[in-house]
Amino acid sequence: MSTAKARTAHAKAILGPELHQRLADTKVLLVGAGGIGCELLKNIVLTGFGDITLLDLDTIDLSNLNRQFLFKKKDVKQSKALTPNDVDNVMVGSLPRWRQIPCFVAAQTAAPFNPNVRITPIYGNIKEPQYDLEWFQQFDIVLNALDNLDARRHVNKMCMATQIPLVESGTAGYLGQVQPLIKDRTECFDCIPKPTPKTFPVCTIRSTPSQPIHCIVWSKSYLMGQLFGEDEDAVGELDEAEKQGENAQEIATLRREAQAFQAVRKALRSSISPGAAKLVFQKVFDADIRNLLIMSDMWRARAPPVPLDFDAIMDGTFELRRQEPPAVAAAAAAPNGKANGIHNTVNAAASGSGSKGANGVATTDDGTSAAPAAGSALKDQKQLSLKDNVELFISSTERLAARLQAGEETIAFDKDDDDALDFVTATSNLRSAAYGIGGKTRWEVKEMAGNIIPAIATTNAIVSGLIVLQALQVLRKAYDKLRNVHLQVKPAVPLSTITMCGPNPSCGVCRDTYGKVLCDPKRALLGDIVKGVLGGDEREVSVYEDKRVLSDPDWEDNYERTLESLNVARGMFLTIVDEEGEWGTISMGLGVLPADHPADAPTFVLPDPLPRPPRKVKAPPPMPETPLRVSLKRAAPGDEGDDDVIDLEPTPKRPRIKVADEAIKSPSKKRKLDEDGLILMDGKDDRLDDDIIVID
Ligand SMILES: Nc1ncnc2c1ncn2[C@@H]1O[C@H](COP(=O)(O)OP(=O)(O)OP(=O)(O)O)[C@@H](O)[C@H]1O
Ligand SMILES: [Zn+2]
């Protein structure tokens, strides 16, 4: 038996000769050549897939090499997936450069395992217009190995529109998930809304932090912007506010703050200001904190912050003692001595007394960490004393200032920018010290500020294996065997499988009826296409492109305009929503006319037959629901510690628009309205608050 035959013998025995044979001709699109993508590419080549298109938009970073094993150090800064044409003629050393590009290296490495494999690498963004419905249609199956919601949602929509099965996946540390998605058979990626990223109330960040993450967010999102970002004319804005008659005393305080920021910004940009870092320190960690302390109400029930003294810290005479909040002090003085359960949070990072800091690291009296001992840990993992933080603050501020003076206009936080990371580490720790919060190492700050969840190669490997198993069930059409698989941190049950759910009837993506229109956007008119798609049906419709309304029954002005003039182009969708809510939504993906389309022929070609949406089943009137109660109260001091609970601040009211009485039953339209902050009124008796604009 030849080596190649011997290598495929097991796969053939497991898959059966029929499926094994079919894999050789199966066209698979793999989107993403990162942690999962590299593993998956190796797996599908070894399994016997014969025709693989690999698409990725990125170049290789040094930090990829720990898990993206197809890449080596010499590949850093190369694209992850280039076509030979992009780099064909460039010789590097004795080899043409394409032979050193990872995907080609991967293809070459894979060849001995499956001499028949054809890998087509593409360096591009899957959202680019040329990857339209027509392009997607060439594939039998799509495998996602992406790392962001936006691209995942896009591929999901393209697969729903073309009815191509998709296997979706993701990992986060030890957790992983694999989900096969097939139009009309299973739910799609958008059937269940995804949670939005965690946010914090502004006041917690600006005035009353209680956790290290609050100080880190303050440093990277607020302080860095104020010092190294665009110069916003805060002083001018305040002049304007004063003219409008706003509170003069508050304006005066804010003006002092804004002017002080202007002064330090100027010092940072001037090479004749060697003491700029000290000026920044004194403003941010001393003067601003003193200003906050004036607002005594704020500190009635929580321990006030302590202004930091630059010179005293540097000469070792600074003693950080936090006061108890008056309410606690009073309770402590009361006969039963109880302190309402509120602890005096003695600063753990800076002046702990052999106790444990908030981060659980024991601290010594001089504020240095007891473990790991300074010097014994890696530089990044060392706990920093108050003085260490001031020194790091000075050096990083000077490095950033030098960059401004050398011509960089603005510097924003980037976790891979050492100067910025040092600055955020130092300033967040100093702020933590002032507020009695435990400090974090540079390593921890990088993880938290960069929202990094450690990538674990083993998790990627397990998930990639599971993707192949699900893909094989899809290709066997063994739909009842498809499973949503979760990898979890439960030693007894590391894998759990969930039987697939059907589509969510109110999903605004997979419940649409899709079609394709090939057109010349320069000449094709919106109205002609819409009327053509409706095929003489006289229904009243609204037309959208993503969230843009292009027309509605009372406003058809755009019908006479070309798609190009409406910025509607290849790769986008025209969504046609039935105004009566009687018929499903039609989504038409736009493609280009074939090269041989005669110049005098119609400006667009519709599918035959035309897409026909299903008639909708009228939903029964909604049952009254117990309203969800959300506390708008700020957390009281002492309520801290539950990382998952976010205090909600009342958000400013927005005018809400009541969509006139006829209920709109289209999920697509509902999604678009929801995303725009509009409210869909389901019943005639629905009421809203006073701040409604009624449109009819
Ligand atoms: N719109 C897009 N088009 C093409 N490729 C994309 C797009 N968005 C992200 N990618 C690619 O997807 C890949 C994701 O890989 P990445 O390693 O970041 O995550 P992962 O595969 O989930 O693994 P890990 O958890 O180990 O980080 C990256 O190489 C990135 O360039
Ligand atoms: Zn769906």
Shape, per Cα inertia axes: globular
CATH class of the largest domain: Alpha Beta
Helix/strand class: alpha/beta
Listed once per kind, the bound small molecules are: adenosine-5'-triphosphate, zinc ion
Helix content class: 25-40%
Mean pLDDT: 78
Largest sheet: 8 strands, mixed
Q: How many separate domains make up the residues?
A: 3
Proportion of residues in extended strands: 5-15%
Report how far apart the termini are: 77 Å
What is the rounded Rg? 30 Å
Please tally the β strands and state the result.
18
Enumerate how many helices there are, as a single number.
Answer: 21
Spatial strand arrangement across the major sheet = 5-2-1-6-7-8-9-10
Query: Stretches where pLDDT falls below 50 for ≥5 residues?
Result: 87-92, 335-376, 625-665, 676-696
User: Would you identify the CATH architecture of the largest domain?
Assistant: 3-Layer(aba) Sandwich
What oligomeric state is this? single chain
**Could you please say which CATH topology of the largest domain applies here?**
Rossmann fold
CATH superfamily of the largest domain: NAD(P)-binding Rossmann-like Domain
Subunit structure: Heterodimer.
Pathway: Protein modification; protein sumoylation
Family: Belongs to the ubiquitin-activating E1 family.
Pfam family, one: UBA_E1_SCCH
